C-alpha cells in the first residue's frame, strides 16, 4: 500500500517536474553573462536560479501549503540590490538601502517570526513591519541623520528582535535552532558589510558575498521544508484515508473527523449491543499520549491534528487483527479503537474470548500499543516523542453501566498519569471512599454557607505555672455519619469544598468577638486562628480583619494568626505578603507544625514571626531506641529559646507527653490533657473558673 501511494504521487506530478527541469535548463545560460564585475556575475547567477525556483514553488502550491510571498519578496529585493550595486550612481544609494531593508525584514520574519504562534506571531509581525516602515520613512524624510547611521540602527534593532524570537522558539521547541542561528550571523555580516561600504567604501564584493550566502541559506531551508511537508501529507494522508475508510452511506457523526476513528457515541452503541446485550465480561481500556498536549502550543491545532491522525492510524494498524477486542465498525473494515474527548482513546477487551487471565491479556495489549508508537515521529523540521498511559475498569464491577465504566477507566488513567504508571486499574474501594468524601464536602460546603459551624476552644497553658496564655479557636464540625474528623482530614475536605476562604473569615470573626467578650470581663489573653490553606491567603483578608476588629472593638494585638509551615513552601510569595500585612496592622503571626526548615528560619531571622508551635503528640511510648522525635523537638526548643521566640507545644494529650515535653525544656502547651474543648458560649465561665482554681 505504501509503495502504491508513493508511485501514484510521482506519476501524477512527473509532467510538472519535467516541465520545471526544462525551464531550469533553458534559464541556466543566464549564468554565462559574466562580463562585468562581481555583482554583475552574481546578478546573472541569481536571475538564472530564481526563475526556476519560483516556478517550481508556484506549481507545487496547488498540492502543498506554500507561502509564496517570502520567496518572491526576498528574490526580488536581492535582484534589486545586485542591480543597484552595478548600475546605479551612488547618489541614489538610498534605494539600495531600502531594498536591503526589505530583504532583511522578509528574511528574518520568514526565519523566526513565521514559526511563532498566535499572539507572539502577530507581535513579531508588527515589530518587523514597524522597523521597516520606520527605516523607510527616515530615509525618505529625515535628512539630519546619515543613511549609514540609520542602517546600523535598523540592523541592530532587527537582530535584537530576531534574537528574542530565537530564544522564545528554543524554549518552546526544546530543540537546537542551528539553521536559524547561522542566518542571524549572516545577516549581521551583511549589515556590517553594507555599513562599511557606505562609510569607508570597502569592496562591494563583501556585500554581494554575504547577500548571496543569506539567500542560498533561505532557498535550502525553504525548499527542504516544502519537500518534507509534501512527503508527509502526500504519503500519510493518502495512506490513512485508504486504510481507515468511512462508508458513504454512514452518518458522518459516527466517526471522529480528525482521526477517522469511531467516536464516543459509536463506541458506546457497539458496546451496548455487543455479544447479545451482555457486555459484562468486557474490560474497558482508556489510554492517551501523555505528552501530546504540548504539540498544540508548538505546532498549532492544524498540524497537531495531522500528527494525531498519524498516531491513530499507527495504533489502529497494530491491533486491527486482535480478535479479543470489540470491533467498533463492521466485519469488512474492523476498527478496534475509538476516540473519546480530547486525547483519550478507548478499547474494549472481551475476557471470555480467551482462557488466559484477563490482566495478563491487558498488559500484553498495552505493551503492544506502547511498542507500536514510533520512537520519533517527524513533522516538518521537528522530531517528537510520545508515550502512552492506560487506565482500566471492568464492566461487571459497576453493574454493567458502560458509561460509568468508561468514566472510571478515565479516572484510573488520570491516577496512572500522576503516579507515572503505565497501566492503572480502577480501585473499587477508592470509589466508595471518594463518594463518602464528596458527600462530606457537600455537607461542609452547605454548613459554611449557612453559617452553621460549631466552634470550640483549646486553652493554651504555661504548664509550669498553670498560667492561662490564650485560646485556639477550632471548628467542631461533624461529618455525615456524626463523627468528628481529625485535623488533617478536615483541612482536606474544607479545601476541596471550595469554601476554605469563607470558613477562614467566619473563624476570624468569631475570634474577634471572643476577644471583645473576654476584654469586657478584663481577661486580656490572646486568641489564635489557624489559616490552614493557601486558598485563604487572599488580598482582601487584611481589609476584612480590620473591618471586623472595628465592628467588635477588638484590639488586634490579642489576635494570633497561625500559618502552617507548608504554606511557606507552597505559596511563598502569598505567605510573605500576608505576614507583612498582618504585622503592619498589629496581628501576631505563629508558624504551626514548625520543623526548623530553612524557609521558616528565614522569617524568624528577620523577626517576622512572633511565635512557633511544634506537634508533641509523638512524645509517647518512646523506647531508648526510638528517641529521634524527642531529640528533634528538644533541638527545636533550644533553637527557638536562643532566638527568644515563644514556643507552643500542641498534642499534649496525656501526662506522659506533658512530662516529656517539660523535661526537654518546653512550657506552653495545649491538648486534650487540659480539656477536650470548650464550647464558645462557655469561654467566659471556664476562664473565670480557671483563674479561681490556679491563680493565688
Automatic annotation (TrEMBL):
Residues 437-691 form the EAL domain. InterPro entries: Cyclic-di-GMP_PDE-like, EAL_dom, EAL_sf, GGDEF_dom, Nucleotide_cyclase, Rev_trsase/Diguanyl_cyclase. One of its GO terms (molecular function) is cyclic-guanylate-specific phosphodiesterase activity. It comes from the Bacteria. The chain crosses the membrane at residues 42-61, 68-86, 92-110, 122-144, 150-169, 181-200, 206-227. Coiled coil: none annotated. Residues 280-428 form the GGDEF domain. Residues 1-32 form the signal peptide. Keywords: Membrane, Signal, Transmembrane, Transmembrane helix. SMART domains: EAL (SM00052), GGDEF (SM00267). PROSITE patterns: EAL, GGDEF. This is Putative signal transduction protein with EAL and GGDEF domain. It comes from Thalassotalea piscium.
Amino acid at each position: 500500500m505504501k509503495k502504491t501511494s508513493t508511485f501514484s504521487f510521482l506519476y501524477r506530478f512527473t509532467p510538472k517536474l519535467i516541465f520545471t527541469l526544462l525551464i531550469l535548463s533553458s534559464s541556466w545560460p543566464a549564468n554565462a553573462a559574466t562580463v562585468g564585475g562581481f555583482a554583475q556575475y552574481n546578478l546573472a547567477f541569481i536571475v538564472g536560479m530564481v526563475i526556476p525556483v519560483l516556478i517550481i514553488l508556484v506549481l507545487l502550491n496547488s498540492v502543498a501549503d506554500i507561502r509564496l510571498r517570502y520567496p518572491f519578496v526576498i528574490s526580488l529585493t536581492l535582484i534589486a540590490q545586485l542591480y543597484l550595486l552595478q548600475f546605479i550612481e551612488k547618489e541614489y544609494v538610498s534605494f539600495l538601502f531600502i531594498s536591503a531593508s526589505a530583504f532583511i525584514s522578509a528574511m528574518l520574519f520568514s526565519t523566526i517570526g513565521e514559526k511563532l504562534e498566535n499572539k507572539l506571531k502577530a507581535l513579531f509581525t508588527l515589530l518587523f513591519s514597524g522597523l521597516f516602515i520606520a527605516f523607510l520613512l527616515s530615509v525618505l524624510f529625515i535628512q539630519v541623520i546619515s543613511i549609514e547611521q540609520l542602517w546600523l540602527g535598523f540592523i541592530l534593532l532587527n537582530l535584537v528582535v530576531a534574537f528574542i524570537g530565537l530564544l522564545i522558539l528554543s524554549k518552546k521547541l526544546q530543540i537546537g535552532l542551528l539553521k536559524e542561528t547561522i542566518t542571524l550571523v549572516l545577516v549581521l555580516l551583511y549589515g556590517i558589510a553594507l555599513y562599511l561600504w557606505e562609510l569607508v567604501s570597502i569592496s562591494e564584493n563583501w556585500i554581494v558575498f554575504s547577500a548571496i550566502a543569506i539567500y542560498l541559506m533561505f532557498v535550502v531551508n525553504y525548499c527542504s521544508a516544502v519537500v518534507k511537508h509534501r512527503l508527509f501529507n502526500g504519503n500519510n494522508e493518502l495512506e490513512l484515508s485508504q486504510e481507515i475508510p468511512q462508508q458513504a452511506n454512514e452518518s458522518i457523526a459516527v466517526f471522529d473527523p480528525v482521526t477517522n476513528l469511531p467516536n464516543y457515541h459509536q463506541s458506546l452503541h457497539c458496546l451496548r449491543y455487543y455479544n447479545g446485550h451482555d457486555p459484562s465480561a468486557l474490560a474497558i481500556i482508556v489510554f492517551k499520549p501523555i505528552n501530546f498536549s504540548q504539540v498544540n502550543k508548538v505546532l498549532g491545532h492544524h498540524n497537531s491534528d495531522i500528527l494525531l491522525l498519524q498516531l491513530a492510524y499507527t495504533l489502529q494498524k497494530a491491533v486491527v487483527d486482535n480478535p479479543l477486542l470489540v470491533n467498533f465498525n463492521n466485519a469488512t473494515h474492523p476498527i478496534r479503537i475509538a476516540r473519546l474527548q480530547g486525547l483519550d482513546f478507548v478499547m474494549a477487551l472481551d475476557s471470555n474470548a480467551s482462557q488466559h487471565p484477563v490482566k495478563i491479556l491487558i498488559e500484553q495489549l498495552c505493551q503492544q500499543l506502547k511498542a507500536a508508537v514510533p520512537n520519533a515521529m517527524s513533522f516538518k523540521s521537528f522530531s517528537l516523542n510520545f508515550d502512552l498511559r492506560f487506565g482500566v475498569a471492568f464492566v461487571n464491577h459497576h453493574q454493567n453501566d458502560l458509561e460509568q465504566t468508561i468514566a472510571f477507566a478515565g479516572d484510573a488513567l488520570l491516577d496512572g498519569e500522576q503516579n507515572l504508571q503505565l497501566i492503572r486499574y480502577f480501585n473499587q474501594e477508592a470509589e466508595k471512599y471518594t463518594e463518602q468524601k464528596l458527600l462530606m464536602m457537600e455537607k461542609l460546603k452547605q454548613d459554611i454557607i449557612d453559617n452553621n459551624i460549631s466552634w470550640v476552644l483549646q486553652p493554651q497553658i504555661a504548664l509550669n505555672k498553670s498560667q492561662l496564655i490564650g485560646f485556639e479557636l477550632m471548628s467542631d464540625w461533624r461529618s455525615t455519619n456524626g463523627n468528628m474528623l481529625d485535623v488533617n482530614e478536615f483541612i482536606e475536605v474544607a479545601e476541596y469544598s471550595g469554601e476554605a476562604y469563607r470558613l477562614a473569615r467566619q473563624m476570624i470573626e468569631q475570634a474577634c468577638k471572643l476577644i471583645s467578650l473576654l476584654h469586657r470581663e478584663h481577661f486580656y489573653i490572646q486568641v489564635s486562628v489557624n489559616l490552614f490553606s493557601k486558598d485563604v491567603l487572599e488580598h482582601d483578608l487584611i481589609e476584612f480583619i480590620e473591618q471586623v476588629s472595628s465592628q467588635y472593638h477588638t484590639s488586634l494585638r490579642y489576635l494570633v494568626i497561625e500559618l502552617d509551615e507548608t504554606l511557606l513552601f507552597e505559596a511563598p510569595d502569598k505567605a510573605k505578603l500576608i505576614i507583612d500585612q498582618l504585622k503592619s496592622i498589629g496581628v501576631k503571626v505563629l508558624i504551626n507544625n514548625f520543623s526548623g526548615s530553612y524557609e521558616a528560619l528565614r522569617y524568624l531571622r528577620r523577626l517576622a514571626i512572633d511565635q512557633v508551635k511544634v506537634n508533641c503528640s509523638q512524645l509517647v511510648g518512646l523506647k531508648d531506641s526510638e528517641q529521634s522525635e524527642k531529640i528533634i523537638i528538644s533541638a527545636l526548643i533550644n533553637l527557638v529559646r536562643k532566638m527568644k521566640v515563644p514556643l507552643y507545644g500542641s498534642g499534649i494529650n496525656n501526662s506522659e507527653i506533658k512530662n516529656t515535653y517539660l523535661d526537654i525544656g518546653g512550657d506552653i502547651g495545649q491538648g486534650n490533657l487540659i480539656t477536650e474543648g470548650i464550647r464558645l458560649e462557655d469561654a467566659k465561665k471556664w476562664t473565670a473558673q480557671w483563674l479561681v482554681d490556679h491563680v493565688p
